[in-house]
């Protein structure tokens, strides 16, 4: 296990980048705490795999350093970093049995045969492949092969870090849940530093202690699932986390109030802003009302998704979402929406602004 430090790190696939826009990975300084589980979350092309490949040694960054427990490994090959990496598509030895595939990284290190047997049996149970241990990998399905890849990553208990690059893409939905649970248990049992790349927010939020959200080559927020939901640091985080994502309203902010169209909305704090200003409100904090206060809105449709209802609204020609409890009645004459004060975030040029005098 190791603390992984990214020092002034950035990368461009161009030989002589001239501007920040030409960097696939924008400048980043961060410590991955020894023993924590992280998820790298973002849309395709945002820089997740580039960052993971730099940490693993598959890619040398254009600038900056990578340190494992303070030791500079920026130019060190993958083998010298003592990591295990599982890729999006399965990498297995078809001529070997499942047992031999799982044992391979341990045999390479000269481990005692009895200990190899113990670990292989344990991991086989975790990935539900005990019955296939003596089957050749060649005849197995793609999701079974990926389980072998995951098992090979998990069988070593002495690695500095376990890196996962969208490893559950080819796994069926039920098995995805089982494997995420097992990965979480593995982390709790052995305390490996784990970094898990995904574009699926459910995978990220159920696996990680902290989620690293990336957008356009930049880390825009690192936080717990609760922090990402309640206080998105960037409008992309609000949009990407949650289903539906956060609603955004263009607004004029003046101290402790904001104006959206002709409606004045009180704010929970005093704000000083500049640039393009917006209010971000998650659907869970939007309420319908039939009174005279609030922003004019009309109900387009109501979607019952079992645990709650999603109300699709038209507000000045654009769609806004609200969430109501499963048993909550929706008034037919509701023509306006209001916001719970604690659910309003203020943004300037896409970045969240804290109320004056606080760091929240």
Structure write-up:
It comes from Loktanella atrilutea. Belongs to the ABC transporter superfamily. Residues 4-241 form the ABC transporter domain. GO terms for molecular function: ABC-type ferric iron transporter activity; ATP binding; ATP hydrolysis activity. This protein has 360 residues and is of the alpha+beta class. The chain has two domains: 4-240, P-loop containing nucleotide triphosphate hydrolases (Rossmann fold), CATH 3.40.50.300; 247-353, Nucleic acid-binding proteins (OB fold (Dihydrolipoamide Acetyltransferase, E2P)). It is built from eight helices and 22 strands. The chain has a six-stranded mixed beta sheet, sandwiched between helices.
The total strand number stands at 22
CA distance, first residue to last residue: 32 Å
- Mean of all residue-level pLDDT scores: 90
Provide the number of structural domains: 2
The fold-level CATH name of the largest domain is Rossmann fold
Low-confidence regions: none
Strand ordering within the main sheet: 6-7-8-3-9-10
Oligomer: single chain
Protein name: Carbohydrate ABC transporter ATP-binding protein, CUT1 family
Pfam families: ABC_tran, TOBE_2
Keywords: ATP-binding, Cell membrane, Membrane, Nucleotide-binding, Transport
GO molecular function, one term: ABC-type ferric iron transporter activity
